[in-house]
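We examine the record.
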Amino acid sequence: MRLILAIFLPWLQFFTIGRPFAGIICLILQCTLIGWIPAAMWSVYALSQYKTDQKIRNALGGR
């Protein structure tokens, strides 16, 4: 579900993972038609990093 959100509404996906400043920057980038593709790629990358951070946090016992 978050991957679809990252592709179609990249700025909103940043807010769901707790990065509102990046979400605002992404929204400004997405306002241009050319900026949509970089915004979507940035959002998918940030989502993959978020999932990796969650796995590491769970492996360390939730510290």
Q: What stands out?
A: The chain is about 80% helix and 0% strand. Helices lie at 2-8, 10-16, 20-30, 36-59.
